[in-house]
């Protein structure tokens, strides 16, 4: 067993102390190489009433679990390691929290809109959104890349898909940040209880206004798809419409923003890699894949065992939580040479979008297009950038993202 500062018999993977500066890569490396890469955390310190969980840390095991929805359910117990503060009924109203057959029927309603070809039709519109956001930071001294570039760009893109008026983008972004980053004191200063007391009621109130308008007058946005959908001859119930909307806005908002900022951070830290992209921008799609591999925006999703089973020699009992850690599988040394090295020419396969199976990310084509355009336009306009202070990370073992990133963007020769 390698030397490690962690006692793997007692370490608790979700503990706050491990997540203050991004994912605990060293801990995951120790678990992967321990001889038993399916690891038991006996409890969740910050939530004493929550049960412990199994951590799945290798790419092969995550693939096995992701493909076997009958043994590893998304519906039985929720989709995150911690479920306190978010009722199971609401998780199950999102198709990410359903098992087949209902999952497949609802996902199918959206799949046509998210094919690479349909998404490619949005390229000009997305480029225009990104350029307008970059116009606004031109000439400014120090900006926060998260708040001033990433957030407004991704909010407007998903906002336009959902039919959200632009003036509401900031309010939706704040709502998504405080509900997904519920444990972070800056994003959600009022504490986890506020998610159900204030956050979710506001999501319902705002969304139901859009729903009422679509019922009166159908449009071609995705909110209208949810409102008019029929699954097994029945319309979706209001809470299913609202949570379907919530899922799309949350997924569209947070993850792309996170990956863009992590990618830009890596390019600032590794100017040789940035120069490779400046020399030949056709390398940017490969750099996007490398950023997705190294900095997966969701640190985990979770399943619940439906029956007693064995994974990598480890017995798991029916009803136990099984947590899939993508920052770990994406640096699995059996798949990647020198996995901690950021290499824009690697163009890797990875599990940032999941490992296939029923719940594989719906938005891959959109995320890839947005990330490519964001990086292309940022580098074209500001080939140099400096960090102007320390980064902060969202305190969360679920959403893995930079919270603030002060930078100076410099135009060519600047
Ligand atoms: C960098 C960006 C993104 C990353 C890293 C990401 C990652 C993921 C992951 C890990 C899953 C769960 C996979 C599983 O459990 O097997 C997922 C599911 C999902 N993603 Fe994404 N995502 C991104 C962008 C987007 C975008 C832009 C959308 C568009 C609205 C989106 C919509 C969804 C939806 C609806 C699901 C649920 C799919 C299902 O349950 O069948 N994602 N995503």
How would you briefly describe this protein structure?
It contains 15 helices and 14 strands. The chain is of the alpha+beta class and 414 residues long. Helix 7 packs antiparallel against helix 11, helix 8 packs antiparallel against helix 9 and helix 10 packs antiparallel against helix 11.
Outline the structure in words:
With 414 residues, the chain is α+β, with helices and mostly antiparallel strands. The protein has one domain: Cytochrome p450, CATH 1.10.630. The protein is built from 15 helices and 14 strands. The protein is 45% helix and 12% strand. The longest helix is centred in the middle third of the chain and has 32 residues, at 238-269. The structure holds protoporphyrin IX containing FE (HEM). Residues 66, 95-96, 107, 247-248, 251-252, 255-256, 259, 296-298, 301, 352-354, 357-363, 366-367 line the site of protoporphyrin IX containing FE. Protoporphyrin IX containing FE (HEM) binds next to helix 11 and helix 15.
Low-confidence stretches: none
**Text of the CATH class:** Mainly Alpha
Series of H and E elements: HEEHEHHHHEHHHHEEHHHEEEEHHEEEE
In total, the number of domains comes to 1
CATH level-4 homologous superfamily? Cytochrome P450
What global shape is seen? globular
What is the overall pLDDT average?
Answer: 95
CATH architectural name:
Orthogonal Bundle
Helix coverage percent: 40-55%
What would you call the structural class?
alpha+beta
**Are any ligands bound, and if so which?**
protoporphyrin IX containing FE
Number of helices: 15
Terminal Cα span: 51 Å
């Amino acid at each position: 067993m390698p030397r490690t500062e962690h006692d793997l018999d007692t370490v608790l993977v979700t503990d706050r102390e491990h997540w203050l500066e991004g994912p605990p890569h060293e801990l995951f490396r120790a678990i992967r190489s321990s001889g038993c890469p399916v690891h038991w955390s006996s409890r969740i310190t910050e939530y004493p009433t929550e049960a412990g969980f199994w951590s799945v840390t290798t790419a092969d095991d995550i693939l096995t679990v992701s493909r076997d929805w009958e043994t590893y359910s998304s519906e039985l117990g929720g989709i995150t390691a911690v479920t306190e503060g978010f009722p199971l009924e609401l998780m199950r109203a999102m198709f990410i929290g359903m098992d087949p057959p209902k999952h497949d029927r609802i996902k199918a309603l959206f799949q046509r809109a998210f094919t690479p070809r349909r998404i490619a039709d949005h390229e000009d519109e997305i480029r225009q959104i990104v350029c307008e956001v970059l116009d606004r930071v031109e000439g400014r001294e120090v900006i926060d890349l998260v708040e001033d570039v990433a957030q407004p760009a991704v909010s407007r893109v998903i906002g336009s898909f959902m039919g959200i008026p632009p003036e509401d983008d900031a309010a939706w972004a704040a709502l998504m940040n405080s509900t997904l980053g519920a444990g972070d004191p800056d994003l959600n200063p009022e504490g986890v209880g506020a998610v159900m007391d204030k956050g979710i009621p506001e999501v319902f109130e705002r969304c139901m206004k859009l729903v009422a308008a679509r019922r009166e007058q159908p449009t071609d946005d995705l909110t209208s798809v949810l409102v008019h959908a029929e699954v097994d001859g029945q319309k979706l119930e209001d809470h299913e419409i609202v949570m379907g909307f919530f899922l799309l806005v949350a997924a569209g908002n947070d993850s792309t923003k996170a990956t863009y900022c992590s990618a830009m951070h890596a390019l600032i830290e590794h100017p040789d890699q940035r120069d490779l992209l400046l020399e030949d921008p056709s390398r940017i799609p490969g750099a996007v894949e490398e950023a997705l591999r190294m900095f997966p925006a969701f640190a985990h999703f979770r399943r619940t065992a439906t029956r007693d089973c064995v994974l990598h020699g480890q017995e798991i009992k029916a009803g136990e939580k099984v947590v899939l850690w993508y920052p770990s599988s994406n640096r699995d040394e059996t798949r990647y040479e020198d996995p901690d090295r950021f290499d824009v020419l690697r163009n890797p396969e990875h599990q940032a979008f999941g490992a296939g199976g029923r719940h594989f990310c719906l938005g891959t084509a959109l995320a890839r297009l947005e990330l490519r355009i964001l990086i292309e336009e940022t580098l074209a306009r500001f080939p140099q950038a400096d960090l102007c202070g320390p980064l902060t990370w969202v305190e969360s073992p679920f959403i893995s993202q930079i919270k603030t990133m002060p930078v100076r963007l410099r135009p060519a020769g600047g």
